[in-house]
Amino acid sequence: MKTLELAVRLALVTTLASLTACGGGGSSTTSDPVAAAPAVVTPPPVAVPIGTAGVFDVNYGQFRGVYTFLDDNSFYGIHLVGGSTLAGHPHGTLSAANSVTARDPIGWANFIDDANEVGAQEPSGVFGRTFNPSSIDVSITGSMGTFKTTATTQKLQFAGSAKTLYNDPIALSVVAGSYQGIVRTAGINQKQQNVTGFT
After folding, report:
1. How much is the pTM?
2. Extended beta strands in the chain, E state
3. Of the candidates 129, 87, 137, the residue with the CA atom closest to the CA atom of residue 108
4. For residues 65 and 81, what is the distance between their CA atoms, to the nearest angstrom?
5. What is the mean predicted confidence (pLDDT) over 46-75?
């Protein structure tokens, strides 16, 4: 559950001016001024501060994922390859000094790097994140190498939304329902499975 109240909110102020055009010519008669319609101004999208917590899409090229950073330094992630194969689950509690140059050991269930693709725990995974004013840099290392990437926006509730998953939580009553999707487990010798009717 999110416990951090985001202190900074951006506000946009748009001022519309009415333009008045006057008709005129060389005659001595005057004409009534004609008011032009006010210009329609579409405000730019609201920039969401990166902050020090949030939900971010990450893309390492070889795989992509979603990372959640909570204000208590908890970290949870999922990795996907090919759009629908659940490849990994990195997670842990990161130190206050954690960064891409001072990474912490994490738990990392790697679901596809073993020969049978049944999942194993990475023995020496490390992870770091650095929050910048307008981006977050992440770096993860495991048995298959070191990967680095940058995210520049928080994950939106849906495409085109002005709300983010972290800063604008969705009510549980809205998301409650039945779902279907994929599930994987590490260490019990089972491949990816499809689940239907998860409530």
Report:
1. 0.72
2. 20-21, 34-35, 54-59, 64-69, 74-81, 85-93, 104-105, 107-110, 120-121, 126-131, 136-142, 145-151, 179-183, 193-198
3. 87
4. 9
5. 90
Q: Residues 143, 113: contact at Cβ < 8 Å?
A: yes
pLDDT at 83 over 60: yes
Buried b (16+ CB within 10 A) or exposed e, 41-58: eeeeeeebbbbebbbbeb
What is the phi/psi pair of residue 34, to 5°? -110, 120
- Does position 175 have pLDDT exceeding 50, yes or no? yes
Mean pLDDT within 55-64: 96
Give the per-residue pLDDT at 35: 59
Interval 40-50 mean pLDDT: 59
End-to-end alpha-carbon separation of the chain, Å?
20
Q: Identify whether the C-beta of residue 198 lies closer than 8 Å to the C-beta of residue 180.
A: yes
Closest C-alpha among 59, 152, 53, 165 to residue 98: 53
Single-letter code of the amino acid located at 132: N
pLDDT of residue 42: 55
Q: How far apart are CA 58 and CA 128, in angstroms?
A: 13
